[in-house]
Write a structure and sequence with these properties.
elongated, single chain, mainly alpha
C-alpha cells in the first residue's frame, strides 16, 4: 500500500515529461511543414525586416537593427540545434539554463561586434 503513492507520483511526472516532449515534437513538425511550404515567403519577410531595420539605422535609430540581428542569431542557432538534436532537446530541463548562460550572452556579444563594425554602437552611446 505504501508503494502506490510513489508509483502514482512517478507515473504522473513521467507522463508530464512525455507530454512536454510530444508537444515540442508537434510544434517542431508544424514549424518545419510551414517553412517547407512557404520558404520563399519567409525569406522575403526576413529580407524585408532587415531592409527596414537598415533604413531605420541610417536615420539614427540603431535599436531596431540590433534587435533584428540578435533575434536572427538567436533563433537561427535554436533552429540549428533543433535540426541537429531534434525537438526533444527543447524539453530538457537543462536547456533553458544553458540558453541563459551561453546562448543569450554569445548572441549579445556577436550583435555588439556587428554594431561596432558598422559604427552604430559609437553613435548610439554618444
Amino acid at each position: 500500500m505504501n508503494e502506490f503513492p510513489k508509483w502514482v507520483t512517478t507515473a504522473m511526472f513521467q507522463a508530464m515529461g512525455d507530454g512536454t516532449k510530444l508537444a515540442y515534437k508537434w510544434i517542431w513538425d508544424a514549424l518545419i511543414s510551414v517553412l517547407k511550404a512557404h520558404l520563399f515567403i519567409v525569406i522575403l519577410a526576413i529580407i524585408f525586416i532587415i531592409l527596414i531595420a537598415t533604413i531605420r539605422s541610417a536615420t539614427g535609430y540603431w535599436g531596431m537593427l540590433g534587435r533584428v540581428i540578435y533575434s536572427l542569431l538567436y533563433f537561427s542557432i535554436l533552429f540549428m540545434i533543433g535540426l541537429i538534436w531534434g525537438s526533444d532537446v527543447f524539453a530538457n530541463d537543462l536547456f533553458k539554463p544553458l540558453c541563459a548562460v551561453i546562448l543569450y550572452p554569445v548572441c549579445y556579444l556577436i550583435t555588439g561586434q556587428i554594431l561596432n563594425k558598422t559604427g552604430a554602437r559609437h553613435r548610439f552611446i554618444k
